[in-house]
Specification:
alpha+beta, 14 strands, three-stranded antiparallel β-sheet, 10 helices, 305 residues, homodimer, seven-stranded mixed β-sheet
């Protein structure tokens, strides 16, 4: 990479649009993906499948919506209320419907005609997994392979900060030693994969954007216990590189919440690791240019063997 | 198929769960998909790609959320307000957050602490496409290939009636003759594909569940003008077979709304066709049994060549 590469969120968004890689949206954080963007993302996803091939993963898939009670139960509204999305729906009749259409016509708010539903947007691909692990794990524990759309309410001009995006995620549930060993193995494999793809990636300890005054304590605890790591790459800023891969050690949080036990009866521990699929794809375009045909041969050979 | 096959939504759901094909949810219409379910769905999706290979499709992909103004603009709140989902989010500070957590803790409603956002759930995979077709089409028009998650707020015990599910969809924008010819070609190919897969499928004219008193007129118009067709297969009922594939002719609705013009300057017409991916998959399990290894050889050969 040349030392003169410029980093700027707005310019990068415009370049992605100009090359047909993303299709511009009409509200911040929501946009389409073009054919070439999806080719790269799909090739990367296949590569991840190969890297994970011998992990004994079970595949599960969940929709982009969950039971609202789930995000209440896992503590999401405590830690990240500002990022959550809950679904409201219309339960009225003809009269309320006419009122709604008039309000829409006149550009007036129509939220008063909606009611909170039982549904929330999925904030993390792994949340719906844990209730499927309740009970006693086999001796080797369980490992789950997931792909899904997540919702984060943080409208932004940064193309890397989307309201709705895909994660390829793996979850491990087992005894503490096994879980930490698995997390460490993925920390190594995840970083190596990015380096093999020619990305200037490094790994580092990280923290989550916990909400409010109480959140400060959670951040301090997370940092001290080294519960979160990220692999980061400069995409829209050199000083603040973008997390393209994250590793979270939950200790016994989900094991306790969903009564998951190891074969010898202890509360199981869990960890997850996830690739931000759009972010990895954008990091490849930023690093190697907007035309994959002109990417370095070793990178092309890895993505399209 | 034996004449003694039993049809019952609850039994079919329980059988899908018992065979690990779906992972039970905790609220109606939301559940996970297991590995074998996804293998079948993915194989069918690949088969659709083959059938569509020579159509000159452009690929686009959109997230499961859209700008709320889009569903207002296309008239979704007029026709299907009861099926829509809009996203609300928390914009408060520490005080409101404490209030929210207390309400959640006490099992009280907390909707008063949320505000309507700019985001809605995607109700049809094709809606975000049309603004990308604004302007003058090339002489042959344009054809778009899409896959995505859609939201329909109709909680139900029927496994075939999901709140969140995937559609593989194609959109055609061109002059009226070209659009109708394309629709007819897909009507034939879609039905033939289902018959080749051993499904007892038939095609028929259909109508949408338009809302309220005004909706009755829209249904009558749609039926009279034959704007909607479906391919249906018995899955949870013999008398009311399930639509697994639908074909919608929009005439100039989207052409006018998004200023899409043909090469000779007329308002373009559009049509779309979509496979309900989970429904096709469930129809295969209902028809051929819960173990794909024991499906008829011609069906297996088609799905796993």
């Amino acid at each position: 990479m040349s030392a003169t590469v410029a980093y700027d969120p707005k310019t990068f968004y415009d370049e992605l649009v100009a090359h047909g890689l993303i299709l511009p949206g009409t509200t911040l954080g929501i946009f389409g993906r073009g054919a070439v963007f999806e080719e790269v993302l799909t090739a990367f996803n296949t590569l991840v499948t190969q890297v994970a091939a011998h992990d004994g993963n079970e595949k599960m898939l969940f929709p982009p919506c969950v039971d609202r009670k789930l995000i209440e139960k896992v503590g999401y509204m405590k830690s990240f209320p500002h990022l959550a999305g809950t679904v409201f729906s219309f339960c009225g009749h003809d009269k309320e419907h006419r009122d709604m259409l008039e309000r829409i016509q006149d550009g007036k708010p129509w939220d008063n005609l909606l009611q909170m539903s039982d549904i929330a947007l999925t904030p993390a691909v792994c949340y719906p997994v844990y209730m499927n692990l309740t009970g006693t794990l086999p001796p080797q524990g369980r490992t789950v392979d997931l792909t899904g759309w997540v919702y984060r309410h943080e409208p932004s001009i940064e193309p890397t900060r989307m309201i709705s995006f895909r994660m390829r995620e793996f979850v491990r549930a087992a005894d503490p030693d096994t879980v930490i060993e698995w997390r460490n193995s993925w920390l190594e494999r995840g970083l190596q994969l990015m380096i093999d793809l020619g990305l200037p990636a490094v790994s580092e300890t990280a923290t989550d954007p916990f909400f409010g005054r109480g959140g400060k304590m959670l951040v301090a605890n997370q940092r001290e216990a080294k519960l979160k790591f990220e692999v980061v790459v400069p995409v829209i800023s050199k000083e603040n590189p973008t997390a393209i891969c994250s590793f979270n050690y939950h200790q016994d949080h989900f094991g306790k919440t969903f009564d998951i036990r190891t074969a010898d009866g202890e509360v199981a521990q869990t960890a997850c690791m996830a690739f931000g699929m759009e972010r990895v794809t954008m990091a490849l375009f930023k690093t190697h240019g907007f035309d994959p045909k002109r990417w370095p041969k070793p990178v092309r050979d890895l993505l399209w063997p």
